[in-house]
Amino acid sequence: MHFMALDELIAASLPQMELYCEIGRLVSGRQEKGAAVAAAEYLYSAHPDVSGFSPRNLRRMRDFYRAYEDVPEIMAEAMPIGWTQNVVILEAELTLQEKA
Length: 100
Known about the structure:
The chain is mainly alpha-helical. The chain has helices spanning 3-11, 16-28, 35-46, 55-68, 72-78, 83-91, 96-99.
């Protein structure tokens, strides 16, 4: 995992959904098993004052990115509704059309 990119995202002070989507993109780009756990452990140690980076949440960020990376119009609709609602939508066995 390229942790410098994570540091850059944290330093950029992005809105939450944009930050989570970008972290999801980074984690999604890693093929090795445990990439989300490694990133979560790094973020916890390097940025202890920032919350929301548990291994489970980073896996959700990855899943969010993967669900919408090929459908930018749906991702654009998902971005303003907030993380908690997106997690509910993502984890409810819905079709892509139903998610939209």
